[in-house]
Design brief:
The complex is a heterodimer. Chain A is mainly α. Chain A has one domain. In chain A, 80% of the residues lie in helices and 2% in strands. Chain A has a two-stranded parallel ribbon with strand order 1-2. In chain A, helix 4 crosses helix 6. Chain A is globular. By secondary structure, chain B is of the alpha/beta class. Helices cover 33% and strands 27% of the residues of chain B. Chain B has helices at 43-50, 72-75, 92-102, 108-117, 131-144, 161-177, 189-192, 213-216, 236-244, 254-264, and strands at 3-14, 17-28, 32-36, 58-63, 78-81, 149-153, 181-186, 198-203, 206-212, 227-230, 248-251, 275-278. Chain B has a six-stranded mixed β-sheet with strand order 5-6-7-3-8-9, sandwiched between helices. In chain B, strands 2-1-4 form a three-stranded antiparallel β-sheet, covered by helices on one side. In chain B, a hairpin with a 2-residue loop joins strand 1 (3-14) and strand 2 (17-28). In chain B, helix 3 packs parallel to helix 5 (131-144) and helix 4 packs antiparallel against helix 5 (131-144). Chain B is globular. Classes of the chains: A mainly alpha, B alpha/beta. Chain A binds chain B through residues 3, 6, 9-10, 13-14, 16, 66, 70-71, 73-74, 76-84, 227, 229-230, and chain B through 48, 51-55, 70-72, 75-82, 85-90, 94-95, 97-99, 101-103, 141, 147.
Chain lengths: 230, 279
């Protein structure tokens, strides 16, 4: 256990990425959005919607990639096994995502209480996805953050192990899977069924399913790191 | 003398290329061993397999009786500083701070002294360091860790002659106080000759020399008109004949030995002492 904690701590030695990169950029985006909506009139009667929360997810992917490309060779030099490195990193992901989700949820609650920062702005309150009781928002935030971090981590590991060609193939695989699913649904004429399924889908259940996807990504990353060389 | 590392018929094949070809040797505990050879001879591959970072195609490596691959109990006793070590994008002092968590015997005073010796700026980001300073970070890390098994893979890249001498001096001084198993790969052979107790010479993936350093190295004067290097000691009759012919017989320097054995690919065993005959 202590070895895992050491690896988690090793990542946190990069103070810049985990503080400024993630929260600084989000704060900057937030202030810009606030300034814009303070000036422009309401676009819809229900309030102003921004998709700017996506920045934090993008930076979580970046940190995930960094964990694989820059920290892995350093950790191996310090006598850490691949397995310990990976488990320690996942431990960090889970802890960080819980913490970050808690902060996002607190801001979400504050945004609701202040009627969108007095501007009816929806920054942390994303319709349907981040909507509903607080525990649901907390769960969704946590799962989404973990999902993108693990995706970045796996992509970085693929790059380390299989190089550029492998990374391109990895990206192509996701496209093929996506297009394949669309074609399958179209061919079997399942669109109405899919539509009604999605409209009836419980957000909590959706988060649960995404958590399973995140676990699958974590498993993929583990299989990739097992025979990686740096 | 007890072997702490045992390498048995180790082979590593990359696509169509043999990086290590049936290598068998041992590292003695608390000894400074030099791993010498040309670029691409297989030095790095061997060290990477020793530390579980690379996978053998066949054969085995045992560190203190255990396979190091994915074995935390063994790996945490080792530190391996590579020629172009990759660090996270952080300051020098953070690199050393992070490294100190992983080594129970980490010596912060030694690290501070070495930083001073190499004039390393603690607050500079590693990626902004010059080539030589980047190498110095690895040296500070590798020595201060005081790991039971310390491996340096050509750690001096970009370091000037003075800084390299500081490295050799510090290595020797700290080794004298805290004996440990050190494996140092290099092709600057003459520089490290005085440092080594044991020598492994590797050429095209094969160990061609495996001997105590005092047996294979002896400094000779300036070369004469012609010289030949023979593998193995000459018997008394041969010596007498050589003397009659006005030939001079002398052991070869370590560097010369490596050059000779690499060029001709001749294997020289522990019991043989190569000598040079010059006229």
């Amino acid at each position: 256990m202590t070895a895992l904690v050491k690896v988690a701590r090793l990542h946190l030695v990069d103070r810049f990425s985990y503080t400024w990169l993630v929260w600084g950029v989000l704060a900057f985006t937030f202030v810009i959005n606030l300034a814009i909506f303070a000036v422009v009139p309401l676009s819809q009667p229900s309030g102003n919607f921004t998709g700017a929360l996506v920045t934090i997810y993008i930076f979580m992917i970046v940190i995930g990639v960094q964990a694989a490309t820059r920290f892995l060779p350093f950790a191996l030099t310090l006598g850490v096994s691949r397995r310990t490195y990976y488990l320690g990193t996942v431990l960090l992901v889970v802890t960080l995502c819980a913490l970050y989700a808690a902060i996002l949820t607190a801001l979400w609650a504050l945004e609701g209480a202040t009627n969108g920062w007095g501007l009816q702005m929806h920054f942390f309150r994303v319709p349907w996805i981040l909507d509903g009781p607080w525990y649901q928002v907390l769960a969704t935030n946590g799962v989404l953050l973990g999902l993108v971090f693990l995706f970045g981590l796996w992509s970085g590991l693929i790059h380390r192990r299989f190089g550029l060609i492998g990374t391109v193939a990895f990206a192509a695989l996701w496209v093929v899977v996506g297009v394949g699913l669309v074609l399958l649904v179209t061919w079997r004429q399942w669109w109405p069924a899919v539509g009604s399924y999605l409209s009836e889908l419980n957000v909590l259940a959706a988060s649960g399913m995404l958590a399973l996807v995140a676990a699958a990504l974590a498993g993929g990353g583990y299989l990739t790191i097992r025979r990686i060389t740096v | 003398m007890t072997p702490i590392v045992q390498i048995d018929h180790l082979t590593r094949r990359y696509r169509g290329q043999l990086a290590l070809d049936d290598v068998s040797c041992e590292l003695q505990a608390d000894t400074v061993t030099g791993l010498l050879g040309r670029n691409g001879a297989g030095k790095s591959t061997l060290m990477r397999i020793l530390t579980g970072q690379e996978f053998p195609s066949s054969g085995s490596v045992l560190v203190d009786g255990e396979n190091p691959l994915e074995n935390d109990a063994v790996l945490r006793r080792m530190v391996f500083v590579k020629e172009s070590q990759v660090y996270p994008d952080i300051k020098v002092k953070r690199v050393l701070e992070a490294a100190s968590w992983f080594y129970p015997n980490w010596d912060a005073d030694l690290a501070a002294q070495l930083m001073d010796d190499f004039a390393l700026p603690p607050n500079r980001a590693v990626k902004k360091l010059s080539r030589g300073m980047h190498s110095a970070v690895g040296i500070v890390l590798g020595l201060s860790a005081r790991a039971e098994i310390t491996l340096f893979d050509e750690p001096y890249l970009g370091l000037d002659a003075v800084a390299r001498q500081i490295f050799y001096d510090r290595l020797l001084a700290d080794y004298a106080e805290h004996p440990r198993t050190i494996l140092l790969s290099t092709h600057l052979i003459d520089e490290v000759a005085d440092l080594l107790e044991h020598v492994l010479v590797i050429d095209r993936g094969r160990i061609v020399v495996d001997a105590a350093a005092r047996k294979v190295w002896h400094r000779t004067g300036i070369g004469s008109l012609a010289s030949a290097t023979v593998a193995g000691p000459l018997d008394d009759l041969a010596r007498a004949r050589a003397r009659d012919l006005g030939l001079e017989v002398a052991p070869v320097s370590l560097q010369e030995l490596v050059i000779r054995s690499a060029r001709f690919g001749t294997g020289i065993g522990t019991e043989q002492q190569p000598e040079r005959i010059s006229a």
